[in-house]
């Protein structure tokens, strides 16, 4: 009887020791996995910091011109509508330039900036937050409130200049009765960023430079900005999402030739890389702004609509005429 009790006790002790060893092995495995996860996160953070430092140190231009060779320079902003027929080759189905940019940012290959000044880098999360349309459920928006639309007037009147009669203080009406106070505006975020085929607006910032060494005018692209179309913005105007150095974009275009495709509809054997397409100016655009003392866009200087388009055409012709005027025959 004592032998059975001793055998049972030893068996229980062996099982407990086995369970303790298994628990210790599981804890060690979890510790190793947590350590590997931390090391991976540290590695990614170091890579992101190195990419940011490299992008900040790199010039914005893919082919910078020495300042000593610059005889004339004018900064120009151009709008590109990817829905136009001439721009469709860089907006082909499944290979949109906007899709390539979004995926490069997600992979950590491309650094985004807050504006085309290219001074303030931003994280990928901020870029995709800017890419998410926001809708209002009624009332005034924050921009309208900031403009003072909800501020009470100094002296209320009936709309014809006659002072309105004094209002008696009344209790808050019950829900559903006339005169109830409307609910304030509430911003509702969908949580889904725009799809690549919905981002069909780009803005190009370029320096128009006359190189005195090579005696020709260059369109030196500095930055490309993703723009949210007005129909997806609750405020009703186009909103910049993020800007990118063109030198970084050209590097990404070269590194992914199968995705960075300018589709040649006439010859499938002659598709081009997007970097070559920008170098060859295989896209349609119109000028929206030329550097000026007030930093104003053409539509602010000359008016929107037809006047703005005529001003853009005039600005383009003036640049061409300037180049022609440099020569005498």
From TrEMBL:
Region annotation Disordered: where it falls in the sequence: 1-64, 152-182
TM region(s), chain numbering: none
A UniProt-annotated Pfam family: GldN
Basic and acidic residues bias spans: 28-37
Positions with biased composition (Low complexity): 14-27, 38-63, 161-182
Protein name: Gliding motility protein GldN
Organism field: Rufibacter hautae
UniProt lineage: Bacteria, Pseudomonadati, Bacteroidota, Cytophagia, Cytophagales
């Amino acid at each position: 009887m004592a032998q059975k009790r001793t055998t049972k006790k030893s068996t229980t002790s062996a099982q407990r020791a086995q369970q303790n060893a298994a628990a210790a092995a599981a804890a060690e495995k979890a510790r190793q996995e947590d350590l590997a996860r931390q090391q991976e996160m540290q590695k990614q953070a170091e890579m992101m910091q190195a990419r940011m430092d490299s992008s900040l140190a790199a010039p914005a231009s893919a082919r910078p011109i020495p300042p000593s060779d610059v005889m004339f320079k004018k900064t120009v902003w151009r709008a590109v509508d990817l829905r136009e027929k001439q721009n469709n080759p860089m907006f082909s189905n499944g290979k949109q330039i906007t899709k390539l940019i979004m995926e490069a940012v997600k992979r950590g290959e491309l650094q985004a900036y807050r504006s085309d000044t290219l001074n303030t880098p931003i994280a990928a999360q901020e870029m995709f937050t800017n890419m998410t349309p926001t809708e209002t459920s009624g009332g005034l928006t924050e921009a309208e409130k900031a403009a003072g639309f909800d501020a009470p007037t100094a002296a209320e009147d009936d709309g014809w200049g006659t002072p309105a009669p004094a209002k008696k203080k009344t209790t808050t009406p019950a829900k559903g009765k006339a005169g109830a106070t409307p609910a304030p505006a509430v911003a509702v975020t969908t949580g889904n960023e725009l799809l690549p085929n919905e981002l069909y607006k780009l803005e190009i910032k370029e320096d128009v430079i006359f190189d005195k060494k090579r005696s020709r005018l260059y369109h030196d692209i500095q930055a490309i900005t993703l723009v949210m179309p007005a129909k997806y913005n609750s405020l009703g105007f186009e909103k910049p999402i993020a800007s990118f150095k063109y030198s970084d974009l050209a590097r990404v275009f070269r590194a992914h030739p199968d995705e960075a495709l300018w589709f040649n509809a006439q010859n499938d054997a002659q598709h081009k890389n997007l970097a070559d397409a920008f170098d060859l100016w295989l896209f349609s655009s119109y000028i929206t702004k030329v550097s000026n003392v007030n930093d104003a866009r053409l539509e602010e200087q000359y008016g929107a609509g037809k006047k703005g388009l005529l001003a853009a055409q005039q600005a383009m012709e003036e640049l061409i005429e300037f180049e022609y005027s440099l020569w005498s025959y």
